[in-house]
């Protein structure tokens, strides 16, 4: 499988509509130029992960403009597309934060198949902010989500989720062999980003595709440095901090070989199924 991570720049001076069009063009051009089977975008690339004031104004339903544009891009390119995440506007959910007009917002990831169908969504479980920002503006997801591709099963997580290894164990128990993590990770904690991406790969003996954004939003410089790690923890490719596309060929048989040759997952005791 060939995977391409689109590390798009999020500039608050660029209209969301323009960035949406650019992202769709990136998806089409990336497939044409690289032959990627799977294309990945970052977290909240429409508004910026730290642009909290824009969350409610730019929130959209799952039949909104971003889903429409990404569906068309996936269909035109004929690729599996993990379109990063959007601010989803949903009906008010019990026990969750609500907006002034009675909606609940979620940080929702989108997975499209090559026909353009939206086949999976994942609402981010761990909200970042420590009692401010995303943590108080958005609802928390509750479901562990995987998506079955013809070649493999991917597990879905988003940004701050990377710090919670128990989620990734549940994804592996659900059959995940490839862990896809869109993010809007801040530059000041970039070392944590690469360290945790490698840790999640090693402990779960799975590929990790972690796609960050470039630029600055909400006054927070983004780390970029999208990274692909193999099941043994080796970094196969890593971007810099600028807008770029990272393309890597994945030997999916390596997951089974690693788990057979070094059967640490078999020796689990606590939390083992």
UniProtKB/TrEMBL annotation:
One of its GO terms (molecular function) is hydrolase activity. It holds the Pfam family CN_hydrolase. It comes from the Bacteria. PROSITE patterns: CN_HYDROLASE (PS50263), UPF0012 (PS01227). The keyword Transferase does not apply. Keywords: Hydrolase. Residues 1-252 form the CN hydrolase domain. InterPro entries: C-N_Hydrolase (IPR003010), C-N_Hydrolase_sf (IPR036526), UPF0012_CS (IPR001110). Belongs to the carbon-nitrogen hydrolase superfamily. NIT1/NIT2 family. This is Carbon-nitrogen family hydrolase.
């Amino acid at each position: 499988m060939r995977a391409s991570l689109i590390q798009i720049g999020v500039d608050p001076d660029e209209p969301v509509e323009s960035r949406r069009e650019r992202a769709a063009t990136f998806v089409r051009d990336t497939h044409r130029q690289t032959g990627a089977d799977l294309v990945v975008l970052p977290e909240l690339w429409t508004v910026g992960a730290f642009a909290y004031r824009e969350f409610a104004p730019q929130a959209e339903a799952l039949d909104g403009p971003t889903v429409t544009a990404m569906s068309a891009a996936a269909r035109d390119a004929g690729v599996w597309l993990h379109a990063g995440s959007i601010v989803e506007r949903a009906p008010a959910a019990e026990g969750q934060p609500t907006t002034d007009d009675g909606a609940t917002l979620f940080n929702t990831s989108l997975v499209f198949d090559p026909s353009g169908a939206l086949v999976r969504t994942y609402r981010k479980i761990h909200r970042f902010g420590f009692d401010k920002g995303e943590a108080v503006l958005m609802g928390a997801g509750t479901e562990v989500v995987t998506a079955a591709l013809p070649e493999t099963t991917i597990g879905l997580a988003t940004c701050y989720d990377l710090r919670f290894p128990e989620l990734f164990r549940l994804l592996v128990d659900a059959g995940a062999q490839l862990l896809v993590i869109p993010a809007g990770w801040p530059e000041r904690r970039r070392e944590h980003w690469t360290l945790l991406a490698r840790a999640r790969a090693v402990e779960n003996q799975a590929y990790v595709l972690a796609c960050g954004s470039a630029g600055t939003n909400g006054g927070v410089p983004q780390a970029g440095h999208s990274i692909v790690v193999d099941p043994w923890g080796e970094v196969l490719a890593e971007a810099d901090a600028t807008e770029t596309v990272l393309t890597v060929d994945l030997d999916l048989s390596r997951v089974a070989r690693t788990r057979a040759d070094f059967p640490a997952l078999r020796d689990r005791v606590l939390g083992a199924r």
